[in-house]
Amino acid sequence: MRFSGKTAVVTGAGSGIGRATAIMFAQEGAQVVCADINEAAVKATAEHISSLGGRALPLTVDVRQEDQVKALMERALEHFGSLDVVYNNAGVEIGGPVANTTAEDWRLMIDVNAGGVFFGCKWAAHYMAQRNGGAIVNTASVAGLIGLTMEVAYCATKGAVVLITKAMAMEYAPYGIRVNCVCPGAVRTPLVERAVQHLAATTGAPPEDFWRRMDAMHPIGRIAEPEDIAKAVLFLASDDARMITGVALPVDGGFTAGMKVT
């Protein structure tokens, strides 16, 4: 197993990509610190890991709060004795026309998507540097690589994640720390479910139209499942990717590869 004896921290572990990745880390032998703002959801993830014979510690964390993120890394070290992988995955998405994007929407996405990743990278790297190595993976998005209609604020935050990743990779390479990010296309998660409902309410179109359009926009013919992204995260966090750092890896079924001509 690729992560036997190692400790992995996963934020946003209560649902979607974070939950799938936490479970997969455990299946690969890792001790997993599951963090999420939703206490009930993160406990359910940890309980599921325990039911599979794995080791998991659930923690309720608001990644907007630097002191809580710092404490998360410290708790991982105290409880499991190491900090080998940190996956900064917690995020929010509020779509819609830019004219309807409120200051509160903007601040929430900036604080969670960009601020949460920054704090996670900062404190993960701080403690990993003391142990001469580690792997950090962040969740960006295709929205951090190209512009998307009705996703202006989200694009801004995910573009920030891409460049936080690259800058951190440069700064911490001398310490043996690799920093990469995954850039998913559409993924069937509760977050995307909520985004679709929000877009449907904003535009008046039925939700099914958005799901069909998302499938059609991916050359592979479908959107991803959370496990598809989790597999990419585990690869980037593993020794199989020991020469990979500073990469923004699209996991998007060809969405950003070019124009689809029909």
What is this entry, summarized?
By secondary structure, the protein is an alpha/beta fold. The protein has eight helices and seven strands.
What top-tier CATH class fits best?
A: Alpha Beta
Record the strand order, biggest sheet: 3-2-1-4-5-6-7
What is the name of the CATH superfamily? NAD(P)-binding Rossmann-like Domain
Distance between the termini: 43 Å
Number of strands: 7
**CATH fold name, please?**
Rossmann fold
Structural classification: alpha/beta
Question: What percent of residues are in strands?
Answer: 5-15%
Question: Strand-and-helix sequence, N→C?
Answer: EHEHEHEHEHEHHHE
Would you identify the regions where 5 or more consecutive residues have pLDDT less than 50? Answer: none
Q: Considering DSSP H and I runs of 4 or more, what fraction of the residues is helical?
A: 40-55%
Q: Tell me about the biggest sheet?
A: 7 strands, parallel
> Mean pLDDT score, rounded?
95
Q: What integer value in Å does the Rg equal? A: 18 Å
**How would the global form be characterised?**
globular
Summarize the helices and strands and which ones pair or pack.
Blueprint: E1 7-11, H1 16-27, E2 31-36, H2 39-51, E3 55-60, H3 66-80, E4 85-88, H4 103-129, E5 134-139, H5 152-172, E6 177-184, H6 190-203, H7 207-217, H8 226-237, E7 248-251
Parallel strand pairs: 1-2, 1-4, 2-3, 4-5, 5-6, 6-7
